[in-house]
Design brief:
heterodimer; A: 113 residues; mainly beta; Immunoglobulin-like; six-stranded mixed sheet; four-stranded antiparallel sheet; 12 strands; globular; B: 113 residues; 11 strands
């Protein structure tokens, strides 16, 4: 069985400070892991994906995530938040043999000036 | 670029109506999905199709059916719309196999009155 837990429903940071959005997963097999972003009234956009090639994954807009198998975590980070980062972020797990994507409940990121 | 197009951005329907939500993808993807997005619940999988005429139930299939007569098109059907089906509906597609991500449409916001 697969599941994803996003540990914070809301995160608020000041512009220019680091961002940390936390995600834990459970998966019976080696998973693929993704982070998606959804800006207000927009569709979902892929930020980055982990596919076992490297544990530290770099994505778009300065985001990165580290896969830690021992902790079953895939936290999303960014060194310096920008106002345009304010959005909802979803952690997603899939297993290739099941071809399905399972979403966390989302984390809303607020960036204060 | 992959394009997933949902036929309507906004729909208002009456209780008991039969509702069709249409989705078309232009990248010859094998897999197509219908999700429902509600605040605080993330995206929940309604139905999944891995080939023409093939479908699998997701986590919340009750009250919904699907149709995939052509590879590029995946329809979600609400047989008799109810107010608790008021939600944002998102269609997605992906290639089959390892390490593939899902591509999403812009969503259809359905209101059942």
């Amino acid at each position: 069985a697969q599941s994803v837990t996003q540990l914070d429903s809301h995160v608020s940071v000041s512009e220019g400070t680091p961002v940390l959005l936390r995600c834990n997963y459970s998966s019976s097999y080696s998973p693929s892991l993704f982070w998606y972003v959804q800006h207000p009234n927009k569709g979902l956009q892929l930020l980055l994906k982990y596919t076992s090639a490297a544990t530290l994954v770099k994505g778009i807009n300065g985001f990165e995530a580290e896969f830690k198998k021992s902790e079953t975590s895939f936290h999303l980070t960014k060194p310096s938040a920008h106002m345009s980062d304010a959005a909802e972020y979803f952690c997603v797990v899939s297993q290739y043999n099941f071809n399905k994507f399972y979403f966390g409940s989302g984390t809303k990121l607020n960036v204060k000036p | 670029d992959v394009k997933v197009t949902q036929s309507s951005r906004y729909l208002v329907k009456r209780t008991g109506e039969k509702v069709f939500l249409e989705c078309v993808q232009d990248m010859d993807h094998e897999n197509m999905f219908w999700y429902r997005q509600d605040p605080g619940l993330g995206l929940r999988l309604i139905y999944f199709s891995y080939d023409v005429k093939m479908k699998e139930k997701g986590d919340i299939p009750e009250g919904y059916s699907v149709s995939r007569e052509k590879k590029e098109r995946f329809s979600l059907i609400l047989e008799s719309a109810s107010t608790n089906q008021t939600s944002m509906y998102l269609c997605a597609s992906s290639l089959a196999g390892l390490n593939t991500e899902a591509f999403f449409g812009q969503g259809t916001r359905l209101t059942v009155v």
